[in-house]
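A student in our group prepared the protein record below, which I am reviewing. Thanks in advance; the entry in question is below.
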Amino acid sequence: MRLAGKKAAILIEDAYNEFEVWIPYYRLKEEGVLVTVVGSGTATTYHGKYDIPIAADVKASQVKAGNLDALVIPGGYAPDKMRIHPEMVNLVRDMFAAGKVVASICHGGWMLASAGVLKGRKATSYIAIKDDMVNAGALWEDSEVVRDGNLITSRKPDDLPAFCRTLIDAMEEAVK
């Protein structure tokens, strides 16, 4: 367990992509990370695109960047719902500003754009939001995973192996 004692949060809202939540969730737990599921506060349980439920441990308004080592933003259509909640957007912005690991996959890039953290940063996303990413200042590239300092981005569920490896490596580097 390379990351025993480290803390990560996964943001959640309705219409999340199940693969992009559950695979990083269990992969992080496998490395010893204490994973907290953070919801917007609109519900206590959220449903994915395939209707698989997940219970939020806490609301975003109860989470502080200083108490976390990493933040995962899954895709699906959940990020479009997340971005209307200032406390969720502020958490992304605060984590990024603190130099903590911020990892986004697929449509999760919408949250990065709303948080204003993409200007001049290399990133990728699902192709459908490429223009949003570029308009927010990202140097967008079509790669399975892009790491630019503390920012990690991937395109789609097929990229999850590279996404999880890079996330874990970045968290381990932050330990040293």
About this structure: The mean pLDDT is 97. The domain at 7-175 is CATH 3.40.50.880 (Rossmann fold).
